[in-house]
Write a structure and sequence with these properties.
With 206 residues, this protein is of the alpha/beta class. The chain folds into two domains: 3-122, no CATH class; 123-186, no CATH class. Helices cover 43% and strands 14% of the residues. The chain has helices at 20-28, 40-46, 104-120, 129-138, 141-148, 155-162, 166-186, 191-199, and strands at residues 3-6, 11-15, 51-58, 68-75, 93-96. Helix 1 runs parallel beside helix 3 (104-120).
Amino acid sequence: MPAIVLASSSIHLELHPAARAAYEWCTHYPRWINWSNLPHPMATELSQEPLRGIMLDSPAAPNGPKSTRTFQLFAPLWTIQLWSTAQPPDGTILIDYRAIKMTDEQIEHAAWLSALSSLLGSVNPLQISEIRDSLAAHMPIHTHREILQTKTLNDPMLCRWTGLSRGTLLHQRRQKKSREQIEKASLPSSIDDVLDALKKPWSPDD
């Protein structure tokens, strides 16, 4: 089983060599959100996401330096870009896979899965304006205040995060409204219309 350790100044963290290529891809991945403009509470808490890696212990040499501990990180890789220094915040959970005896191939595989997971949550650039309405409908106001430092996510914040103009967000909203009107018009207006549609002949190509 992996061991759990808390990050501290006595533990040096470095990137596992087998995770290097995946990390470099992460740093060049074209993100829509500018992380430097995220609210401080949000960036701080995200920077403390649990880390997976291999702990290495270097025993102290006679009359030499004290023993050192090095945590070789392989996932997640994106969180590094939120740290204020080259090391994770003190208290960050470090999951030590040393006892599992992972091979470099397994570590490389895990690193790339971590890197590619960012694609699954990628924002559709044509629907960024909908983020505000979606969060307002699902995230409680007190959580907005705690994480985003505002009652609701607003257009100025979205513009700072994404680099889009307010006019682009308004254009996206008009497009959404137009799509909804078209979809609404295509729906049957009454039960009779539904029954009439069901009575129509159909073919396997329908």
